[in-house]
Amino acid sequence: MGTGPQPSAPGSFEDLLATLRDRFDSLSPAHKKLADRVRADPEGIAFMTGSELANDVGVNEATVARFATALGLHGYPGLTKLCRERLQEQAQLLRRFDDLEQLVAEGGSVTERAVAYDQANIARTFSRINEATWRSTVKQLANCPAVHVMGLRVCYAPAFLMGYLLGLVRENVWTVTASAGMLTDDLRRVRAGDGFVSMSLKPYSLDTVCAAQWAHDVGAHVVTLTDNAGSPLASFADDAFFIDTVSTSVLNSMTAFTSLIQAIISGVVQVKGSDVRATLFEQERMLEEFGVYAPPFKA
In this structure, are residues 178 and 185 in contact, taking their beta carbons and an 8 Å threshold? Predict the structure, then answer.
């Protein structure tokens, strides 16, 4: 009996993520559970046995082995190998923050811990940015006919910031708020070729996920800012950025989110070049004419 063509083995963890994204819809329910776990927790899988993963996900050990083999890997050891290589790629970066655990253990102040966590969040977030993804994103956001930015709940503030800053340097930028049941009205503006930026963190906003899928289906270029490759937003993204949001409290830190948005806007400015200067000059002229700013304080 012929075995048919064998799938090519992913050569890196990034290749593995791409393979899972491309094949996800055709996977069995059990394999989808495993795919979600791989995308969300490669660090954990790197040091799990096959039986431990099977028990955690709720499948049998043979299913784990078949899942890895179906991806072109040499069984489950091939899967853990890619996950461990993923960790090794970031090892040098992580060593820079070894003092973070010591700071926490020694009872550092809230401000010291907040700074340490946010430094780590920013560094880890930017270390994961793929250069091709970066170039694609800034080019699309600079040149597409219109840009729609959506983030709800904790992501409302960064979405508003991105929409505001992007609107300063180019025309036709819309912030999708989904307020008062107006989501479908906002999405009617989305056209093929537009840019659509979606932002959400776990637990993911259903409206944001549905909107990203809608934008993808109508042919918009979807850029996603989320927390990990297992996020449902990643399934509809042409370009995806994964952001660390660890904080000293139960609330997410949005520092790395803000830093990434500002960097993206700077990239857009660089692409658009001298056009931005004229736009900003006209903006300042109008603000002055309308008396938007308070007059200088006089002692």
Answer: no
Token code pair at residue 152: 């709800």
Q: Are 192 and 139 in contact (CB under 8 A)?
A: no
User: In the CATH scheme, what is the homologous superfamily, with its name and number, of domain 126-288?
Assistant: Glucose-6-phosphate isomerase like protein; domain 1 (3.40.50.10490)
The answer to whether the peptide bond before residue 203 is cis (omega within 30 degrees of 0) is yes
Q: For residues 135 and 223, is the Cβ–Cβ distance under 8 A? A: no
Residues in the chain predicted with pLDDT less than 50, given as ranges, are 1-5, 92-93, 96
pLDDT at residue 101, as a whole number: 54
Helix (H) or strand (E) holding 150: strand 147-151
Encode burial over 97-134: b for 16+ CB neighbours within 10 A, e otherwise.
beebeebeeeebeeeebbebbbebbbbbbbebeeeebb
Give me 58's structure tokens: 């709720």
Burial class (CB in 10 A: 0-12, 13-18, 19+), 259: middle
pTM here? 0.67
Q: At what angle do helices 255-272 and 131-143 cross, to 10 degrees?
A: 60
DSSP annotation of 175 reads E
What would the CATH number be for the domain defined by 13-89?
Answer: 1.10.10.10
**Are 181 and 168 a contacting pair, CB within 8 Å?**
no
CA–CA distance, 78 with 267 (Å, rounded to integer): 37
Are the C-beta atoms of 247 and 253 separated by less than 8 Å? yes
CA distance from start to end of the chain: 91
Residue 68 has, within 13 A of its CA and on its CB side, a CA count of 21
